[in-house]
Design a protein that fits this description.
six-stranded mixed barrel, 16 helices
Length: 415
């Protein structure tokens, strides 16, 4: 086998220019694949982290059936006690409560549908960083149960500004209409039309007054520093919840089940990217086929002599495949190195696309920053060498097959 590899390497060096051009194509294609996948991987992770922090948590506790039917009557009772117990069991986690309500928000001049997100202000700010998105005013204080922070588009729809009065009206617990007066404390902009156009953030205590039951919340979110710790944290939270029957029938979900639409969006986007790279791999393979086939046609007479002295066509085919293997392996190594070198500086500075697309855009209902920070996808990085070799060897199959069909006599006479 070593002899065949040496012969294959020597054959590739016969026409250095053609081999170099082909290997450059493979290397650059793979480098582009590495870099763009790292960009996509970083963007997907940023999107998931944003969704986890703003919409759920790594582990979510909520009323049984709320995931399938998000009704405000499905709630967590004695939520403060349960929150404290979970925090004690997971001291390094951020454990926070939220209440979600749908209704109507009314100003002196307009009214519009609204999604109320009631939070514990300081805890929420530490996790979702919504306070960093303020374009005017200030974030809620921990003792401010009369303030509201509105999305920028929602504020425009209501034609209100800082200090203006607004009234929330809804039916959070049955048929009776409840209302609550708030004053606009701040305005935020996330870049998501859905969030900026329909979300109002208020204090948890204000929303709890509209709900029945003892210390009710819609959700207890457990946010972790390490995504990989989700399964262990899930087991701990399930154990704590099992000891709190007074909290009502509850469901405990990992983040993948809590935000399934976002997870599905990321998976579909990844699959779309894989399809593009499959097409690119096929295009690059055409170049490999051309190089190896030209190399074979130039050596038809040589192959005839080798078969005449006893070398089997199958071994000649293996040698041709070895040429593709060498080109693929060397090109893959070069391409991966180039891709990582290009990725490295952007991991610190980010790839700024805000000039073309604005500061943020929406994907799957989640605001995504247009300063993209790539992250190295180690799982795929281990696969890239095999991708380069696979397409190169695959492209060499046809030239190898052509070699096995050669007749020694005709090959020797070939000019």
């Amino acid at each position: 086998m070593m002899l065949l590899l040496k012969l294959a390497a020597r054959n590739l060096l016969r026409n250095k220019r053609r081999t170099a051009i082909t290997m450059a194509g493979i290397s650059l294609g793979l480098a582009l694949m590495v870099f763009s996948n790292n960009i996509a991987y970083g963007s997907h992770n940023d999107m998931l982290r944003t969704a986890i922090s703003m919409m759920a948590g790594h582990v979510v506790v909520q009323g049984e059936g709320y995931q399938a039917d998000p009704d405000s009557e499905r709630k967590v009772l004695h939520s403060g006690e349960l929150q404290a117990a979970i925090q004690q069991a997971l001291p390094d986690a951020h454990v926070l409560r939220r209440v979600y309500l749908d209704g109507l928000l009314v100003s002196p001049v307009a009214s519009t549908a609204v999604a109320i997100k009631a939070v514990e202000p300081s805890r929420e700010a530490a996790v979702s960083k919504l306070d960093d998105k303020l374009t005017g005013g200030e974030w809620l204080a921990d003792d401010d149960d009369r303030g509201a922070v509105l999305g920028v588009n929602l504020a425009e729809s209501l034609d209100v500004g800082l200090g203006d009065k607004i009234v929330f009206m809804g039916q959070p617990d049955g048929d009776e209409v409840e209302s609550r007066l708030f004053r606009v404390r701040g305005i935020f902009a996330t870049g998501s039309p859905e969030i900026d156009g329909f979300t109002a953030v208020v204090h948890l205590a204000a929303a709890q007054e509209l709900l029945q039951g003892e210390d009710p919340s819609t959700q207890i979110a457990v946010n972790l520093a390490d995504d990989d710790a989700t399964e262990d944290a899930l087991a701990v939270v399930e154990q704590v919840v099992a000891g709190f029957p007074q909290a009502g029938p509850l469901e405990v979900l990992p983040w993948r089940q809590a935000i399934p639409d976002i997870v599905e969006f990321v998976e579909l986007d990844s699959a779309y990217g894989d399809g593009i790279w499959l097409v690119l791999g096929i295009i690059v393979s055409m170049g490999v086929i051309n190089t190896v086939l030209m190399s074979v046609l130039e050596r038809v007479r040589e192959f005839g002599v080798m078969m005449a002295v006893g070398m089997r066509p199958r071994r000649l085919a293996v040698m041709v495949l070895a040429e593709g293997f060498i080109m693929g392996a060397v090109s893959a190594a070069i391409g991966i190195v180039i891709g990582l070198l290009v990725t490295w500086p952007f991991m610190a500075t980010g790839l700024d696309l805000s000039g073309q697309y604005g500061d943020a855009m929406e994907a799957g209902g989640v605001p995504v920053s247009m300063i993209l920070y790539p992250e190295i996808d180690r799982a795929r990085l281990a696969i890239y060498p095999f991708i380069g070799v696979f397409f190169a060897v695959l492209a060499s199959l046809y030239p190898a097959f052509k070699v096995t069909r050669l007749s020694p006599v005709q090959a020797i006479r070939h000019q």
